[in-house]
Amino acid sequence: xxxxxxxxxxxxxxxxxxxxxxxxxxxxxxxxxxxxxxxxxxxxxxxxxxxxxxxxxxxxxxxxxxxxxxxxxxxxxxxxxxxxxxxxxxxxxxxxxxxxxxxxxxxxxxxxxxxxxxxxxxxxxxxxxxxxxxxxxxxxxxxxxxxxxxxxxxxxxxxxxxxxxxxxxxxxxxxxxxxxxxxxxxxxxxxxxxxxxxxxxxxxxxxxxxxxxxxxxxxxxxxxxxxxxxxxx
Length: 233
What we know:
By secondary structure, the protein is α/β, with parallel strands linked by helices. The protein has a single domain, classed as Rossmann fold, CATH 3.40.50.
């Protein structure tokens, strides 16, 4: 089984027991992973696309799913046959999906970023991406461009892993405190350096995996396996 299959997604209402990430890293059944990304709004699409594509590449997948709360539809560019068919399947299910390269993007049909009740919007978007990932058997990443609250942390705990974007204006000490706090949710957590503009554009187009996204996914997989290749979260 590929290492990327270590990141298994289960619906929030299912009793998870061990972390799906750690369980699969120890040899459990493969699932379609869903990763949450905390970032600033301008980087949401790049972050979700990059992490999703990195997951697909780690697992040998043909395409990946991406989405971000408040993000509209993406341009439908030249897509691989698998991604194009996957987007068609999701559109038949009523989801606003477009395909570009190896990326299937699911727009947030609920509109612009909310002024309030962000956790509910995040929960809805995360559940939607998770269901789509399960239907297609493909990895997914969803970006949440919000500050943390207790309610949002409960949403993050549904996901198989959490990525924190190292925003340039955020002190390193603040990022490290956030990582330590998020780790208490029982999911693998890692920080990602923002990709350069060109690399980010290629990720959004579904054409290439930014090195920064590949590195953070590798770190998450390493954390999931643990010092001896497995174990409870």
